[in-house]
Amino acid sequence: MSDRKNEQKNRAAALREAFAARVVVSDGAMGTMLQAQDPTLEDFQQLEGCNEILNVSRPDIVRSVHDAYLAVGTDCIGTNTFNCNFAALGEYDIAHRIFELSEAGARIAREAADASTRNTGQQRWVLGSMGPGTKLPTLGHVDYATLRDAYQQNAEGLLAGGADALIVETTQDLLQTKSSIIGARRALDALGIDVPLVCSVTVETTGTMLLGSEIGAALTALEPLGIDMIGLNCATGPAEMSEHLRHLARHARIPLSCMPNAGLPVLTKDGAHYPLSPSELADAQAEFVRDYGLSLVGGCCGTTPEHLRQVVERVRGLTPSAREPRPEPGASSLYSHVPFRQDTSYLAIGERTNANGSKKFREAMLEGRWDDCVEMARDQIREGA
User: The domain spanning residue 80 has which CATH number?
Assistant: First the structure.
């Protein structure tokens, strides 16, 4: 094994130990910090708004954001690779640069983290950010395999650049989430590397993910895919996340994370303003650690180095409260968790919505007659399935 891969293996092992022993603090918002430095159209290589291009055109700007968060004591920094995926880079016609920009983003963060480790003696880690993109496979915007293979390139680039963990974040569609997790796992297998794989879903103010999935459905669908941690980020502030974290704390077998926005945005004449103060965010995160046993905390939209400085101070010395999760066996639809609980003498499972078992269903599916497919399912429900 190469020295570099050996170092990566040791850092990943140390990160897993830290998750088990204490509260690990990640950084806050990346995009707004980059935009605050007012990069030019030339910096964006004429691809205005494509923050990931800055990894190759202005690595100094990206590095300065990492340094700002490291300076306030965060344990982890996330890479500037949120949009290094097929859908987002495809909108700029540069999807062929997924690996290049992912590797560059991870390398910048790795250099910043290593410099901080040398200067402070505190181990710092790099979380490889894998964002949701702009196309939802459940709605037919793009096919699953295309997303999965592009996410594998994304993950391979992050790992090549020195990421210590991969974080699939801000996910809105369970099928997209699966594509990114499976792509990440394929990358880990292909490179022979074992690092933590974190999944962070986004629950809207409606109480569900964007496509209507409840947190129970997300847990049931995603935990069996071999992720090391599950949690929430984005969309809301901590107050709106509490009940969803409570569900995860009761039922998840794996450690938990939370990276809220600095409250719900308030639209002003100068754009969106996030009202939650640093002390309010820090108090909320400390409360979550005590109540729900979080292992990883941080911030998302609207959070700044000052927010994270106060989070670091408030959770320092805390250990995740002991949890006694009671997993609830069941299956998940796109929308909800269905427990395997029999209220009658037998459990009827409808099987006619099966391309192998029903010629009628198979033909309707192949011909795209989705209403017919749904009606066959409804027939079975009416019959007691």
Answer: 3.20.20.330
Contact 233, 247 (CB under 8 A): no
| Sequence letter at residue 145 | A
Query: Same structural domain for residues 267 and 352?
Result: no
Domain-located, residue 147: yes
118 falls within a domain = yes
- Same structural domain, 224 and 111: yes
Residues pairing with 165 in the sheet: 127
95 contacts 149 by C-beta, under 8 angstroms = no
Same domain for 308 and 350?
Answer: no
- Direct distance between the N- and C-terminal alpha carbons of the chain, in angstroms, rounded to an integer: 54
Q: Is 260 in contact with 288 (CB distance < 8 Å)?
A: no
> Quick check: is 323 in a domain?
no
- What is the average pLDDT across 228-252? 97
The total number of residues written for the chain in this structure? 385
Is 366 strand, coil or helix?
A: helix
Query: DSSP character for 340?
Result: -
Q: Could you list the residue range(s) of the whole structural domain that residue 360 is in?
A: 342-382
Indicate the pTM of the whole model.
0.89
For residues 103-107, average pLDDT: 98
- Do 165 and 277 reside in the same domain of the chain? yes
| Other CB atoms within 10 Å distance of the CB of residue 359 | 9
Please report whether residue 348 resides in a domain.
yes
- Burial class of residue 225, CB neighbours in 10 A (0-12, 13-18, 19+): middle
DSSP string computed for 250-305? HH-SS-EEEE--SSS-EEETTEEE----HHHHHHHHHHHHHHH-EEEE---TT--H
What is the CB neighbour count within 10 angstroms for residue 45? 15
pLDDT band with cut points at 50, 70 and 90 for residue 307: very high
Higher local confidence (pLDDT), 299 or 265: 299
